[in-house]
Protein 1
Amino acid sequence: MFLHYNSRLACVFGASAGSATGADVSDRRREKHHGIFSRIGRLFRGFLGLFISGIEARNPQALMEAARQEFRDKMAQYNLALARMAGVAERLKTQIKGKTTRAQDLERRILANHRAGIWNWPAAWRANCRS
């Protein structure tokens, strides 16, 4: 449903009779043409849907096989995604283990330096890291 410009109604609502600009007119034309093409598209999709429904009704085995194949494809995608996530989880576990080991090593070094009375720890730390 399209609303068209009515000069009498425009006067009642306080607009002048000549208030429709060229842009307004072209917008309405565009909407009208767009409306026609969208209606034709819906009609085409409707006929296509009826055609496909008829084929499906005549051959339910083909429909079932297509559904099975789609299910197999989705399962393959699911398994790939699951394997990818398992790989990410293992990589994160390895990184956590390495970082934990590094933190424990640094903590042992700090405590050893503290017990030894080394207060100039940046110089001692740099010397210790080189070895």
Note: Residues 60-114 form one domain.
Protein 2
Amino acid sequence: MNRLLKFFFVAIALVIISFPLVYKIKYRPIQMWDESRNAVNAIEMLKSENYLVRTFKNKYDSWETKPPLLIWLQVASMKVFGYNVFAIRFPSMVAALLSCFVIILFFNYFLKDPVPGFVSAFILVTSEGFTGAHVSRTGDHDALLVLFSLLISLTAFIYFQSADQYKREKYILFFWMLLTLAFFTKSSASLIILPGLLAYSLREKKLIPALKSKWFYGGLAIFSISVFSYYFLHERATPGYIRDVWQNEFFPRASNTATHYQYEEGHWYYYLQNLATHRFFPWIYLMIISIIVLSRFRAKTSEKKFVNCLLINAFCFLIVISAVTKNEWYDAPIIPMLSMVTGISIVFGVRQVNVLFGKNRWIKIPVVLIVLALSYACYSKTISSIAWDNSNEDNCFGQYLKNTDELDKSSTYVLYHTGFDQSPLFYVEALSLQGYNIALTNVIDSVKSPDFILTSREDDIALLNAKYPLREFDRKGKCIVYARK
């Protein structure tokens, strides 16, 4: 294949892979719960210039106690792109794109076979566990956590396989730096990746050499000093912070006894069921079939070792998260691992069919058509799910307020909302910074004389109409805009 044609195919593949991560990224309003909380944290940090403490309604946020790496990135993004939904989601979008590109580059440069890399990235972006709620397309912590978990896993694998002592020690230091960034993204959740890597290091007999390296302890010192310094400074600024962190992010959270977090108890197979029914459907079934094919025929040693590393890591990760508090998106870090296992296995299986039935088109063509049809179905489903409007009465205000062309800076606006106010609060704060006269309230008597009143809940609508003479001015989904008569 000549270089120009190869470049063309690579460019098309990158566009196909990137499209689900950027298409209509601003379409849905800021989501409940974590995205809206992060958005308010970020815009208040931007206003206060206090880059240490996350705040909500200008007070220390004892509910969201994670370290602020994501919030710092969102603040930087707002300084570049303005106070809007795109700026809040830009760090997650970039992290998701980088995850795909990292997979492609890893296969190309370390396994010397780019095809499984492109296939794996395609599988990743067509998996609900990656492009669905709370991960790659919203301003949540999980897209960054997925990226750093992926980099940690790949760095560890390169270390395990490297024969160059000097390069191996550099990877140890890189590992600790990545773990530090992961911890500053989502605290204790970043550590769940470690048991699988520990298990694989014991299997490969590489743990003892790592523990003998000075770079291991140098990296550990970087991690420990960074984490300790942050928590020490935060505790000094807001006494009680470490107590809240313990409650929200460690044992009480894991055992579902935390003050601020309570979840329904799930079965031990909760995550397996989710992966099989929607989070990694239908790829999980093709992965199982392809792994059987991979195990029965001779594949590259490096690829088999990589598959073993990924499977051990994913298995240990699932054991840990299945033993603690359950939430649908907690399995997000293993979606890239499963995608890579599936990508390697599918490519190997297709190539094996080509070897065994090279002259028999009646076998080869159906196999290729089945893979293409499945790929098209998954891709189209992913794109259609992006266009689905999932706004509700608590976050629907964004559908109206995101179009500032419809707003008038000379008019006054009040959002009357007695439900959860995280999502509308972000829009109020963002528009206020842009010079609009807008306020949020849940007290009916404080709605005195604005030009326009925005509301959404049926009870709120009834109260407003009973108390004030209003006429409906506009409507976007569940958001109703009233004007004074």
Note: The longest helix spans residues 361-386.
Protein 3
Amino acid sequence: MSHILRKAQSSIIACCVLAGALLVGAPPAYAADSTVTVRADGAVRARGAAIVVVVNVTCSGSAEFPPSLSLRATQRLADGTLLRGSGHAPDVCTGSPTRVALTAQDFGTGEGLKPFRVGSVFVTATLQECGFETCETTAASRTVRLADVALGVPTYTSARFSLRLPSSASLEADGAGAIIRVTYSCPGDERVFLNLSLHQRTSARVTSAGTDGRHRCPGLNKTAVAAFHAEAFPWIRGPAYVILNGQACLDPDNQDCATAYAHRLLTVG
């Protein structure tokens, strides 16, 4: 074997050994961890019927199913009692801050609760990301300072579905009912589902009610009528807070869906 051939073989072996060492020594590539951050300031809306907290979320991208974000809030009132609230938001892995509405009462219970107050509230935000076998959670907690400021999300827009919450609701039958008319558009042949809850402080208590329904597509600037029957107390003329969760689905099994989330202050009158 010639000197030149032996030198070439030695060079090839050295390169292979070096490449193998690099492969063995290289750390495996992992997806970045999810993060949740709660902003220090939030909002009290409709005289305490709801609060709004802002959360920044980054997702690892490893979940097989859409991640969900849930929030809990606890506030100590002037009389020493505790007021607890909850809320949730879909489609949070957008890279933009998410404004989440929380209420102190689940609609339909028939129990009027005390309203939230301007001041401090303790908040925990939990992100859940699930695969086919396990779920991972990421959480953050902090004190949030509430002020009477606007943090609503009155519209939702996507290529498949858009909607706008109105600034007013009609008072019906001396407060026995209230009606909200939601404008929506869906250019494709979608199945639209809307779930709405209405929350209002009447005197020293908060009353809430909810409704849901399926609406027709396709069409532009269509109107969905949501009717709310009074639960704990009659509705009154004045501010209230409405929260909407919706879906526009292409298939009958509700698998291929665009998820809508919106909330805002409105006036009942």
Note: The CA atoms of residues 90 and 104 lie 19 Å apart.
